[in-house]
Every structure is written in structure tokens, then in C-alpha cells.
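pipeline stage [seq->struct] | target=TPR domain protein | organism=Colwellia psychrerythraea | residues=914
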Amino acid sequence: MKFVKASLYLSIALAISACGEQVSVESHLENAKSYLNENKVNESIIELKNAIRADTKNAEARFLLGQIYLSLGDGLAAVKELERAQSLKYPDNKVLPLLARAYILTDSDSDVIALSTAAKGLAAEERSQYLAYQTLAALRSEQPDLAKQSVELAQSIAQQSLYSMLASAYLQLSENKYDEVKTLISRILTIEAKQVDALMLQGQVAMVTEEYQLAVDSFKQYMELQPRFSMVELLLANALLKAGHDEEAEQHADAILAKVNNQPFANYIKAMVRFQAKDFDKASEHAEAALSADFNQFNLKLVAGASAFYLKNWQQSYHHLSAIVKYLPNDHQARRMLAVTQLELGLIDEISATIGDFDGNDEVNSQFLSSLSYKLLELGATTEAKKLLAQNGQNSSKNAAHNARQGILKLMMNDPSGIENLQDAVKLNPELIEAELAIAFSALQRGDIAKANAIAEKWQKQYPDKASSFNLLASIAIKEGKYDKAEQALKKSLSLEQDNFFALTEQLRIARKQENIPLSKQRADYLITIAPTNNKVLRQYFGVYRNEMALAKLTAAYELDKTDINKAILLSEAMVSLGQLKQAESILVSIADTAKLPKRYWQLLLLTYKKQKNFEKIRPTLEKWLKENPYHIEAVVLLTDFYASQRNYERALTVIKRGLDNHKDNLVLQLVQMQLLLNNKQISPAKSLYKIIENKNINDALKQGLLGRIYLLEEDYVQALPKLTVFYQTYPSSQNAIYLAGAHLGNKDNAKAVKVLEHYLTIDANNNRIETMLAGIYLENDSDKAIAVYDDVVKKQPKNVVAHNNLAWLYLEQDNISKALEHAEKALELAPQIANIVDTYAKVLLGSGDKRAALQYASKASEIAKGKDVDIQLNYVEALIANNRINEAKDLLAKVATATDEQKNKKSKLLAQL
């Protein structure tokens, strides 16, 4: 009975409780509706949440809460509540249109379309509303047919309804019919001014048609109506940016990034605004953040590349700009940036493609191309510089400054047609003194004094009050060696323009040319007081004094500006001249990481290593020089020469080929390559290269010499001889004498070979290579001459192993044992592991009567030669016989396979002795 009683109490308690909760849910709903009428959204949300807490299955509370979230633009929260309301059987007529829009806000297009079956039962107005969202979902999911069906159905249900017009507007936008879309939006907003979907569409269309202020206004209204739709703030920020409201756009971007610090679109806005403000650090930072999130907009890459360019981050600039260059207009500023970036990175071959379509007649482009040509010329990329110069001057210009730039650059490239450009510049603008000055100094350089004088006289008439005409006159007088006349002109120049630099430095130059030391010092002292940090003055000052006091001046100037590469080089040069090699090396090494170091830097560093005999540092330095400045021909030639001197011809050829990649058709490099191919006996590629070189404008004797060497390698001595003869007669060097003598020897004409070598010794009596070769020929039929020459060689070259060895044999043949022994011992001391040297020593010992020692060294020679040298083996047998080791001699002799008649004769004699 107690159990039953307890159950009864419990049932009553539950009933009372349920009744209380029901009252509470209804109360919350009423309160929520009341708050909504008063536009108290937050209070309404609280009441509805309380209602749901009291009754989780209350469909109306779920619907109302979802409706509020949707009105705020909170798509995710709206979807959650409206889906729950739908599952709790809340009327589809109310839920479905709102749920479809919630799906639109969350980009759930497939979910919108999935509602289509259920939507068929909706009333006309609600179905029309759903169909508008189905149209948009179909278009976004690339289902145009479904979108058209939706629009047609919406219009058939209610043609002039707000949502049928919205559906039609979406479809018209997909077909780029902007005017029709604008008309429909206008009609919708006339019906309902705050229709949020129409406002969003209006903003998007305005962005496409570049009506940015309208887009700003539309997105602002939308944001006020749906403040929780975060995407609209990004759209607004972008519209503000496009409309030129950078500060306001940045405020919205900052607000977004405060919530989501890696939001790519907000980072894009920040990057664009910061770039406009020239805050390139921040622009680069935000651009990189957006790009790292795969926000690969063209404008963003442009800003990232340009920001990196201004920050001199060349690798980053190249990475971004090279990716978009093909989309840039021909004369876009970013193309210039990329070209400079490629220059900085040493990607010279890419520059032409980057600016290949520049209009050289445009003044801005012309100046840029000239500047770039000059930079390429500085690097040594002459071929590329000439390409740009040609592009810059495709048509005759009517711009004097353009012609002047062209002319000066051409003269720098040793192109005499530059004079014509300068003359055109002067015709176009007679006041363009720089052009006429260049003409005058070019004439001076060519020795055309009359031309330079004519310009100077013209200037004196036209510009009697300008120092420049007298400076030119002084330069002409110095060229002619008329120093008094030059002094007078410079005094006049200084009276017109006090302390003008050109006149003062020219005065010092005159004093130095005349070796007037007191006057040179006086003028140098004055110059250093008025320009103590000028590099030209410092160089002249040190040139006059060349002592520690002058070095101190250079050091002081360098300490004031250690970033000045020229000062560092100048100070290092001075230190080297005073023998302070370690100090010079230290300064040069301290700037080793500076980009684009000039040739003089590398030449000076190599000089310090050579003078200190730090030969192990030379190859790495040459390699680094070539890597950092691949267009410096000097680096190519020096590194090639280094490997060639080590007889590493393959490596040398690799270096020269790399040089030719950067300097196509460079004659100097082609000639070096030819020498390497010939030295390495690569006949076929040498013949191919000769076909190119023979068409070049070079000395005919040189061409004949190259072809003669090819014939020499091919052992075609008949054709080689006349060409090598001309080569030697024109260029009588020791090497050319050896080539010609070699051809005579190959042609079995030893007498003529001797004649060539003897002739060269009249030019250079101390050339050991020639003497050694000559003695080698004498060996065959004139022992006395051979001995005389070899004796002379060993006096000059005490460590010449070949000469000592051959003298030992020659003296042994003359039975001069003491002399033979002297030279054999010296040869053995110098090369104890060379089989032939040891064999000679053994032979001389045998001749001296020291049979046991002879056998010892004959055995050693055989061991070194591994028993493969027939002559050494026969000498070994001879030593064995002399020591009565007959059986060993017989066994060894039986194994010897002779080849020459001389070897066969000797073997027969040894057999006879046995």
C-alpha cells in the first residue's frame, strides 16, 4: 500500500510540475513576441532561449528564434533552429522560405535545392520566395537549366511579385545583363526599401559596373540590417577601397582581423591600403599573409611584388612579379620593376622578354631603357645592353635628350655611330652642352684635335662667361702637350667659376705630368682641403705622396663612409702599394657580401692573395667572382687560365662555354676556347669553331696559325707547315716555334726543325723549353751539340730532371763516367720514383764498375715499371749477367718480347753472352 501511495504522490507532483512549465513556456513566448514588437532583439532572444530550455521540442520557439537569427544575418544559428522547427512539424509555409535563405547565407546550395520537393506544397507567395533562393543556389552550383526553370516557375506563379523579380535579377546577372538587373533591383527596393537580398545584389552589381559609392551605400545598409553576416563587412571594406575611402576601408579590415587574424580578404584590404600609403613593410606583411592562405588575386600579387621591390627583397619581388608579368600591359610600371629585379638577381637573359614590347619612343620608357642599358654595360652584359639600346632607338627620335643618351651609350660600347646621335641631339637642341661635350671628348680620344678645337672655339663665342669652354680648351692643350696654354685656359676657367672641380684636378694632372713634385703637392694639398672625401681627389692625393700620411687621409675618408665600395677599393689599392697586404685583404674581405662588386674589387683581392702566395685562395675567389658576376669576361678568362695551367682542360672548357652563354659570339672567348680545344686535342670541335672564327675580322696570320695547328693535330704536316711558318714569322713566340719545329719533325725534316729552334734562340737565348727540344733533336746525331745545350739548360734550371738524365746517357756514351755519374745522381735525387731515371743511374753504375749497386737499381727500375718496359728489362738482364746470375738472366730474357730493331739486336747480344 505504501508503494501505491508513493506513486500517487509522484504522479500528482509531476502533473503540477508539467502544468507549471507549460505556463512558463507560453509566458516566455508572449514576452518574446512583445519584445520583438518593440524591436528589442536581444531580450527576445533571451526569452526564446528560456522557452526552449523549458521545452526543447517547442516548434514555435525554435521557429521564432531561427527567424530572428536570420534577420540578423547569422546563417549558421538560423539553420540550426529552423531545421529543428521543421523536424518538429512547424508549418512548411513559414519555415521553408526562411530555411532556404539561411542555407544561402551558409553557402549550402545543395541543401536549398533539396527542399524543392517539399516546397511544391507551399502557397504562391512563399513558393515564389523559395524559388528565388533556388535560382541563386542553382546558379552558384553551375546548374543554369535549373535556374531558368526556377525563374519561369516563379514568374508563372506571381510575375510581378518581389521574389519573382529577385529570381529574374539573379538570372540576368549571370548573363551579364547589368542594366536589366539594375531595373529589377530598383523595382524591388521601391516595393520594399530594406529588402536585404536586393541590397546585397545591388552592391555586387555596382562593384562590377564600377559604381563604387553605390556599392558602399548598399553594403552599409545591408550591414545595418544584418550585422551578424560577417561577409558583408569584407565586401564593404573592398567597396570602400575601390571608392578611394582607404582609411575607412582599413578600419573595417582591422575590425575583421581583430576577430580572425588570418582572414585573407581582410589582409588583402590592409595590403592595398598600406601600399597606397607607401608603408611597404606592412603592405608586404599583409600581402604575404593573404597569399599564404591561397588568396591569389592578381592585384595582391602585384602589391606583394612591388612592396618587395621597394624593400629591395629581390627574390620575393621576382617570385611574385614573374608570375603575373604575362598579364601586365606592355608599358606597366611593374614590368620595369621586374626588369630591375632580374638585373639585381643576375637573370640577365630574362630582361629582354620582360620589356620586349616597350615603346622606345616614349620618353619615360626611353630613359628607363637607357638607364638599364648602362647598368648592363657596367655588369659586362654588353650583348644584352646592345639589344636594349637597339630597341630604344628603333626609330629616329625628335627628342634631343633621347639622342644624347643613345650617343653616349653607343660610344661606351665602342660604337662610333654614337657620334651621329650626339650630332642629331645638338641639331635638335643647340643648348644641349652635354651632347656637344661628349662629341668633343670623343674627338679628343680619336686624336681629332681640329674637331675638338672647333667646338671649343664655338663655345667661347657662345658662352664667354662659362668655365666649360676653357676647360675643354685646356683638355685639348694637355692632349697636345702644350701645358702652358692649358694652364692659362684653366686659370681663366677658375676666374669664371671659382674652385670648379674639373679645372683644379686638371691643374694637378699637369703638374704630375711635368713631374713638378713641389707644385703637385701644393695643388694636391689644396684639393684635399676643399674635397677631403672625394674619391678622385683622394686617389690623386695618394698618387702624389704615396706614404703613410696620405694613407691616413684615405683611411679617415673610408671610416666616414664604409658603405662606399670605391673608397674601400681605393684604400686597399693604397695599402697594397705600401706592402700592407694583410690590411688590404681584411678591408676587401669585409665587403665581400656586397652585391655587384666591380671588377677592380676582384682583381685587387686576387692580387693580395698572389703577393702573399696564398695560392689556395685563388681558385675559390675566381669561382665566386664568376658566380656573382657571370658577365665579367675577365673572370671567365682568368678562371679558364687557372684550370688550363693545371692541364684540367675539360674544366677549363666548361668555364669558357659558360662564358660564351653570356657573351655569344665574343671573339676573345672564342679564341680562348680554340686554344683549349687544340691543347686538349679535340680536333672535331676545333674544326667546327674555326669555321666561325675564320669569318671574323682578325689577323690572317692568326687564322692560318689556328688552321695550321689543326692540321698538325691531324698529322697533315704538308698542309700544316706553310700556315705555321706564316704564324711563327708574324708572331715569333717560343710556343709557335715549337709548333713549327714539331711540324718539320713530323715531316722527317730534322734539319729544318733545328733551324727554327736555333733561330728562336737568337730572339730568346735563355728559353729552356726551346733548348731542351733542340738538345733532344741533337741526341740523334750530334752528341757534342746535345751535351752543350743540356749543360746550358742545367745551369739555368738545376732541377731539370730530363736534362740531367740525358746528360748522364750522353756522357756514358762518351765514356766520361765521372760526369755521367754526377748527372745520374742529380736526376735520381730529383725523381727517385721514375723508372727511366732509376734505370739510367743503374746503367751508369754498371759503366763505373759498381756491379752490385747497378743490379740493385736495375731491379728497382724494373719493379717501378712493373716489368712492362722492354728497354729497362734488357738493362736489368745485362746487370744480372754482370753479377753472374745467369739462370735469372735466362729466365727474364726469355720473357722479354722485343719490338724495335735496336731491342732485337740487344737481346741477341745478351743471348750470345749467355
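stage status: PASS
auto-comment: Residues 332-395 form one domain. The chain is about 80% helix and 0% strand.
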